[in-house]
Specification:
This protein has helices at about 20-30, 40-50, and strands at about 65-70, 80-85, 90-95. With about 110 residues, it is of the alpha+beta class. The longest helix has 13 residues, at about 40-50. The radius of gyration is 17 Å and the shape is elongated.
Length: about 110
């Protein structure tokens, strides 16, 4: 599937110089309409995608099943919302944050 950019963006070589409408088309092509299944989280990702001026500023949605060796990194006996994990696709260590009270809770038991 190709993206039909507007006349203004069609010949731009730098994605980050494109208009928000074209960036949103690109977002939907890469992630679908609702990558997380939660409207609030998806809005954060869409807004970030439009507002970013470089790849360093982008927040990427990665499905939970693409992580391994997930472990809480809180202080002992103090619940934490932060976890460390390995991203299977490129085998790097990442930090995960657990979101709560967003209308849909599907955190796996290991993220308790």
């Amino acid at each position: 599937m190709t993206i039909k950019s507007c006349l203004k963006c069609r010949f731009k070589k730098n994605f980050f110089k494109c208009c928000n409408k074209c960036k949103l088309k690109h977002f939907k092509l890469n992630y679908g309409k609702s990558p997380s299944g939660n409207n609030e989280i998806d809005k954060i990702f869409r807004d970030n995608y439009c507002e970013s001026n470089s790849s360093k500023e982008l927040i990427e949605w990665i499905p939970y099943n693409e992580f391994k060796n997930i472990a809480c990194i809180g202080i002992e006996k103090v619940p934490s919302k932060y976890y460390i994990a390995r991203y299977r696709k490129v085998n790097i260590t990442v930090i995960l944050m657990k979101f709560e009270n967003l209308g849909r809770s599907q955190a796996p038991p290991s993220m308790g």
